[in-house]
Amino acid sequence: MTNPTIARRRGRPPKTDYSVGATQGDARAALIASGLETLTEHGFLSAGLDGMLKRAGVPKGSFYHYFASKEAFGQAVLERYARYFADKLDRHLSDDSRPPLERVQAFVDDAKAGMARHDYRRGCLVGNLGQEAAGLPPDYRERLIATLADWQRRLAACLEEARHHGDIASDRDPDRLAEAFWIGWEGAIMRARLERSPRPIDVFTDSFFSGLDTQRQGRPSP
Questions:
Q1: Concatenated DSSP letters for 141-168?
Q2: Closest C-alpha among 63, 104, 130, 137 to residue 212
Q3: Which of 201, 47, 5 is nearest to 135 (CA)?
Q4: Closest by CA position to 54, among listed 65, 46, 62
Q5: How far apart are CA 169 and CA 26, in angstroms?
Q6: CA atoms within 13 A on the CB side of 38
C-alpha cells in the first residue's frame, strides 16, 4: 500500500492512506485524498474548496479540469471513502483465522486506533454527511443509504457465520443485528469525537456483544 502523495506538514495529524493506487503527481487522487481528510473532520457544507486545494497542493484553476462542481467532487470523495471502508471491513470480517465475533471486535479495535491516531479530529464521512443530509443534493442521500446498506450486508454475513457456529442464538436475525450495529456505531463515533475518548465506542460495543445472547456473554476474548 502506497503512502499519500501529499507531503506532511509539521504539526498536522498523520494521514490515512485514502489515495490507494495514486501515483506521484496525480492531482485528481491528491484532491480526493485531501477531500477525505477534510470532510471526515468538518463535513461537506462547511468545507471550503480553497482549503482542500491548498492541502492537496493543486492550483485552483486545475480543479474544474477534474470535477464539474463541488457537488461532483463530493460524490467522488464519498465513492472513494465507501470503497476504502468496504476494503477495511472485508480485511477484518473475512479473516478466517479468527472466530466471527472476534473479527467484528478486530474491526472495532482498528477503528478506535485510527480515531486516537488522529486525536479524534476525524469521524465517519458517511455519518458526517448524514447529519447534513437536509442541505445536500438528493443523490447524496441515496448514495449514503446505499453505502450503509452495503456495510450492513457485509457485517450480516459475518454475524450469520457466528450464528452458524452457535455464538449467536439461532432465532436472532443477522440482518437486523447488523442494522442495529451501524445505527449505534454512528452515534458512538460522533460522541467519541465529542469526548475525544474511546469510551462511547466501548460502551456501545460492550452493549452490542452482550445483547447477542451468545454462549460467551460480553465482548469476545482476544
A1: HHHHHHHHHHHHHHHHHHHHHHHHTTSS
A2: 104
A3: 47
A4: 62
A5: 50
A6: 22
Q: pTM for the whole thing?
A: 0.81
Q: State how far the Cα of 35 lies from the Cα of 60, in Å rounded to an integer.
A: 14
**Rounded to 5 degrees, what are φ and ψ at 113?**
-65, -40
pLDDT surpassing 80 at residue 6: no
pLDDT in tens, 166-220: 999 999 999 999 999 999 999 999 999 999 999 999 999 999 999 886 544 444 5
Give just the sign of the alpha carbon dihedral 81, 85, 86, 87.
positive
* H helix intervals, the chain: 27-42, 49-56, 60-66, 70-93, 100-117, 125-131, 138-164, 174-195, 199-210
Distance CA 7, CA 48 (A): 20
> What are all long-range contacts of 20-26, with beta carbons under 8 Å and residues at least 24 apart?
20/84
Q: How many Å apart are CA 118 and CA 13, to the nearest integer?
A: 6
Joined together, the cell numbers standing for residue 125 give: 464521512
